Every structure is written in C-alpha cells, then in structure tokens.
Amino acid sequence: MKKTLLFASLLLMLGAYSCSDNDEPTDNPGPGPGDDTTKVVEYSQLKINEINGNGEDADKYIELYNGSDKAINLEGVALWYNNVSSDPEITWIGDPSDSIAAKGFLLLKGAKKDKNPDSDLQTGLSSKQGIRVALQNPDGVALDSFRIHADENRDNAYSRIPDGTGDFYYTAEAGTQGLTNGASTTGLTKIVILPSLTGVARSVATPVPQQKVVVSATAIAHFGTSLSSVKLKWKLNNVAQTDITMIANGDKYSDTIPGQANGAEIIYFVEAVNENGAVQSVADTFTVAALTVDYSGLVINEVDGNGKFVELYNKGAASISLEGVTLVKNETGTWWTGGANVNIAAGGRYTIAQSGGAEGANEYTGNGGISPKKTVKFEVKKPNGDLIDSFARVKTDGALDVTCAPDYGTTTPQYSFSRCPDGTGNFGLAVSSCNAANPATQEGAIVTN
C-alpha cells in the first residue's frame, strides 16, 4: 500500500510540473488538511472474542471482534500464542488485505499451518492445556489477551459475553463461529484464572499419639497472577481448627498439624488463593492410631512406702513409650497414668512419687497412699488395661490396705521393696534407691505378719 501511495504522489508531482511548464492555469493549490491519505487506525475496540481448541486442527479457531463503528484494516496486527510447554510465538499476523467490518467478526480457523496450508493459525490450539493468547497492534502495543489454566477434563469454547466487552465464559463445545455470543450468561461459568495445586502429601501415613504431621504441596500462580496465601485448613474430630499459613520454599509449601491423642480424627486440605479466587484440594483424612509398643521389658522395680514412690524399669533393648500406661493400686484405683511423650529408655528407670516423696523422682503425681506398714499391691498395665507386671505385699487371706508387721518405716535401716538385681531379680528388702540401681542382692525377704 505504501508503495502505491508513493507512486500516486509521484504521478501528481509530475502532472503539476507538466502544467507549470505549459503555463496553463490550475485550480489545485496542493493537498489540504483533509486530503492526507495516511490515516491513524483506531484499534481500541478490536478484541479477542472467542477461542475454541476442540476437535481436529482444522476445526479450531480464534475469533476477533470489532466493536467500533468503522472497519479496521488488520495489516500488521498480530496474535501471539503459548501453551504450558511453549514460549510465546506469533500464530497469526494480518496482511494488507485483511480487515474486519464494523461490529463484525473475523474467524481465524485451522491450526498448525505448517501441516495444513489452508489453516490461518501457525500453532496448535488446545481445549485442555493452560494457554495464553495476546492481541497486539502493528507497533506491538497490547490490545487484548486471553488466558486460562490447564484442565484435562474440559471440552468448552471460551466466549466473551457480550461480544467485545464482557467477561469470558465456558460455553458450548462447538462455540458460535463468526456469530454473536449473545448477551445471556445464565447457566454459564465465568472463566477465572486459578493457581495450580499439586503434590499434596503428608509426612506420615498413620501417625501415632502426639506425632506431628507435616503437610506439603506445590502451589503455582499462573499468567501474571500472584498467590495471596497458601493455607493448611483442618478439623479435629469434625471441629474446625485455626488455619495455618504454610511456609514457602520456592513453589513448595509446608506446615505442621500438631500431634494429637490416640483415636483423634483429622480432616485437612490445602487452599491456595490468588487475586481471582481460590482452588482447594482435599488431601485426605487420618486417624491417630495407638502406638504399637512392646511392653515385655517393662517391670515394677521398686516400691517404697517411706520415699512414697514406685520405680519402673526397662529391661529390654528398646525404648518404651509410657503414654497411657497405668499404675493401679490395690486393684481398685489408678494411681498414675503415663502422659504424652513419656518414654523409658532401654536399661533405664522412670520413677513416680507422691507429692513430697523422695528426691530424684521423674514426677510427683502419684495418687497417694503408700505406707511401709500396710499391705499394698501395684499393677502396671498397658493402655488397653492388659497386665504387664505386678508387686504385692499381702496377708495370706489376700487382704489389701490393712496394717501389718513389721513396719518397715521403723526398722533400721528403713527398707524399700526392690528387685535385686534390677529388672530380673525377685522382690526383697533393700535400702531405698530412688531412680538408681538396686543392690545385686537383697537384704532379706519381705515379711507380712
């Protein structure tokens, strides 16, 4: 076109020179303000109106719409395209012969021009991949754009409603090629760019009591959007708990659900939010399971009515959790229950004393009532109530919590009832040794008169 205009201008100039040489009069004073053939094209109402990646390559299309009252020449106008696996590239550029009528549509149909010369679009076009299409004027200035996230389960055209001015919506699979998209959005879903959320996982499949659970996920914002927050939401026994803002390490996010009691039921999911909306992925549920513990090495090692304590001993080769383990006194009442995160090391001791009991105990929570002059029985039991070990100083009739002789609080020395040696020996009399090794040999048998 520019060459044609230049050629016409030269002809006019030559004509003017010819008239001047013949001294013929002319009424042409030269070009005026309204005669300039170079006109500025107004592109502001040129829009991407519909995109459809369904079907065969020949069926795919991008539709442009001219919302203005004048036709628009499209020479140099460009459409850029990229999907989740490609860099942006020009998929179409207007020729001098391309134009779009006022309030009209231009259908650019057929993808992959290198395989089909009749196609308008250079690149492929997908209904399922994440894509971005950008419309630019001949100077590279952005006019409009469309973007959408990936979705393997989607078969829709993407249509602007109403034409040229509205938001994009998921519409019919075939779209409305070269025709108006109408004005009604009833029953349609607006297209909103969402972040992707993948790889939601937890650090342990079935946690045991008080074991922390780390939940992790990969969250990514797409197409110029940004993440407002990534949160871990959870319920404990169907009661909503405080949301946890997850810690970012690049695109990886993680945080921790605190340890819970045996049998606790947890429901959780990760929620990633951007300025357009939110996407959430229900990860899973889990129930805190009882810890499988080998209690066979756990024994009562010493009972002291003077120091008011009971000493447990682990004769095994591995640490033993005491959570939920109980000491039952005189077959009737729980004297002590092991708390969360309470363990007894292999070859180690754990001593529970009454308030004011002997120094050196691990805790002073025993429920009272140990006397050096009364019959007494202690049983150590698993969390489910099964018996692990026991100690008893009883009369021949089995009576418990009754006065008997001798009173080991008045003897010299004052004896406790101890396994000699630790863990494996029989109970006998020994000098008190709270949380320390018992003698290898007892001082004598325990007497009950």
Topology of helices and strands:
Layout: H1 2-21, E1 46-52, E2 61-66, E3 72-73, E4 78-83, E5 89-93, E6 99-100, E7 105-109, E8 131-136, E9 142-148, E10 157-161, E11 167-171, E12 189-190, E13 196-202, E14 213-220, E15 227-236, E16 239-240, E17 244-245, E18 247-249, E19 252-257, E20 265-274, E21 277-287, E22 298-304, E23 309-314, E24 320-321, E25 326-329, E26 333-337, E27 343-344, E28 349-354, E29 363-366, E30 376-381, E31 387-393, E32 415-420, E33 426-431
Parallel strand pairs: 28-29
Antiparallel strand pairs: 1-2, 1-10, 2-7, 3-6, 4-5, 4-8, 8-9, 10-11, 11-12, 13-14, 14-19, 15-16, 15-17, 15-20, 18-19, 20-21, 22-23, 22-32, 23-28, 24-27, 25-26, 25-30, 30-31, 32-33
Describe this structure in words.
There is one protein chain. This protein starts with a helix and ends in an 18-residue tail after the last strand. It is rod-shaped, with a radius of gyration of 43 Å. Mean pLDDT is 88; it is low at 1-37. The protein has 449 residues and is mostly beta strands. Helices cover 4% and strands 40% of the residues. The strands form 8 sheets. A 6-stranded antiparallel sheet has the order 7-2-1-10-11-12, with no helix packed on it. It has one helix at 2-21, and strands spanning 46-52, 61-66, 72-73, 78-83, 89-93, 99-100, 105-109, 131-136, 142-148, 157-161, 167-171, 189-190, 196-202, 213-220, 227-236, 239-240, 244-245, 247-249, 252-257, 265-274, 277-287, 298-304, 309-314, 320-321, 326-329, 333-337, 343-344, 349-354, 363-366, 376-381, 387-393, 415-420, 426-431. It is built from 1 helix and 33 strands. The longest helix is centred in the N-terminal third of the chain and has 20 residues, at 2-21.
